[in-house]
Write a structure and sequence with these properties.
This protein is an alpha/beta fold. It has 15 helices and eleven strands. The strands form two sheets. It has a six-stranded mixed β-sheet, with helices on both faces. Helix 2 packs parallel to helix 4. The chain is globular and about 75 Å long.
Length: 432
């Protein structure tokens, strides 16, 4: 089965369990998708979003009622928290990236897609201000003025003639002339894209879109309502609910949103605790426990694990640290870690495992690729922290974590004895 076909099957399964309100089955579908290697963003865009669009179409056509639609949304909100947890676990550390404000235009109440975009951007390290649904224009104006976001995303999924969307655009331009604006939702008029406002159609593209906006100058404010509605055409007729909303259903939907918000707060706190527990505060790399966990996951792959472990040790660090003091030594360690971080990829794990010793776990790396990276690491360190150099021990993944670390450490000791500035590769080690 092709990847695309598998996504379609998962989306159909997810939509079917939403129809019957089975939250546990929905969580199992998402767990299966993650177990198959789908990224959380892909699960959002390829599984949850199509299923929720199908639910929306069924509601608009009268096949299901508003209660069933709200229940499906509540289930998806709960599932999205799990995906958000997965995104925050791999979020880049350090200072947050640019500030992004996300809001649904006044009168817009369907914001599941906006919440997905918020989760993805926060997982990518942006500082996200999520205002949610039905944000009045004046409230949006005041919030933008106070917080000065670099990018503003406006959701517009139900047609109202375009007036409120235009007012929201003009409010953002007035209060934050340097802000870039992107739009999302099924009711965004095509002419706005031509006017310079990108239309984000999938959460898988939202990070790239924000980065592209930040690389370009701010958009020119729209000259007037003619961008949205031409003089020779009638404004679109607002969509009306086919049934009056049940106050109890509406209240339960609000409670579900509040619970999802609280769950995300706990996810963020959990991520902060992980940061304190497993990250070296000096170099901002993870510690040995995280490296061992990454190696353990790699070794557990079937049918056969493929990857490598690098152990890196700085030549002459102890002597310079003793001569010049710990402040100089700390600076050397930070610069060395930064130079190594520039060499590794997003799926690799860089950890500080000792005083001046670092480990790099390389999933999928061959012997040739691991040696090439070791040479690059040595070259970057020589440039970043002269006159220091580094020795590297390389070992391919063996039968368990201890055996792999022992092989890499033996190779490192050999390199140090023959060094400085040397790479030694351990011979293949049989599984115990």
């Amino acid at each position: 089965m092709t990847t695309e076909r598998r996504h379609v099957v998962l989306a159909r399964r997810y939509g079917d369990v939403l129809r019957v309100g089975d939250g546990r089955a929905a969580e199992r579908v998402v767990a299966d998708a993650l177990a198959e290697g789908m990224a959380p963003e892909a699960v959002q865009a390829r599984v949850i979003a199509p299923a929720m669009e199908r639910i929306g179409d069924l509601w608009e056509s009268g096949v299901i009622g508003v209660a069933e639609e709200h229940l499906a949304t509540s289930i998806s909100q709960r599932v999205l928290v799990r995906l958000f947890d997965a995104m925050t676990a791999r979020r880049p550390r350090g200072h947050a990236r640019e500030r992004v404000l996300l809001a649904a235009v006044e009168g817009q109440r369907h914001v599941l897609g906006l919440q997905m975009a918020s989760d993805v951007l926060e997982g990518a390290g942006f500082e996200v201000l999520y205002l949610g649904d039905d944000v009045p224009v004046e409230s949006l104006r005041g919030f933008v003025a106070r917080h000065g976001p670099a990018v503003v995303g406006l959701a517009y999924g139900t047609q109202d003639g375009g007036g409120l969307l235009l007012q929201a655009l003009q409010a953002v331009h007035l209060e934050a002339p340097d802000a870039r604006i992107m739009l999302g939702g099924r009711a965004v008029p095509p002419r706005l894209h031509a006017a310079g406002y990108p239309h984000v159609r999938s959460t898988m593209e939202v990070v790239d879109q924000v980065e592209a906006l930040l690389a370009d100058p701010p958009q020119v404010p729209p000259p007037g309502a003619g961008i949205l509605v031409r003089d020779d055409e009638d404004p679109p007729i607002p969509l009306e609910d086919s049934e009056q909303p049940d106050p109890v259903v509406e209240r339960l939907a609000r409670v579900a949103d509040e619970v999802a918000h609280l769950a995300r707060t706990h996810v963020r706190r959990s991520a902060a605790y992980r940061e304190l527990a497993f990250r070296d505060p000096l170099t901002h790399t993870v510690d040995r426990r995280v490296a061992e966990h990454a190696l353990r996951r790699l070794i557990a792959e079937r049918p056969a694990p493929c990857g490598a472990l690098l152990l890196v040790d700085l030549d002459g660090f102890a002597r310079r640290n003793a001569l010049h003091g710990t402040a100089v030594g700390d600076d050397l360690l930070r610069r060395a870690a930064e130079s190594m971080a520039a060499c590794v990829g997003p799926e690799d794990t860089l950890a500080r495992v000792g005083g001046d010793a670092f480990a790099v776990v390389l999933p999928g790396a061959t012997r040739t690729e691991a040696v090439a990276l070791a040479r690059r690491v040595r070259g970057e360190i020589a440039v970043a922290v002269p006159p220091l150099t580094a020795c590297v021990g390389v070992a391919l993944v063996a039968g368990d974590v201890r055996t792999t670390f022992l092989a890499a450490d033996t190779a490192l000791c050999t390199a140090k004895a023959a060094g400085p500035d040397r790479t030694v590769v351990s011979p293949p080690v049989a599984a115990p």
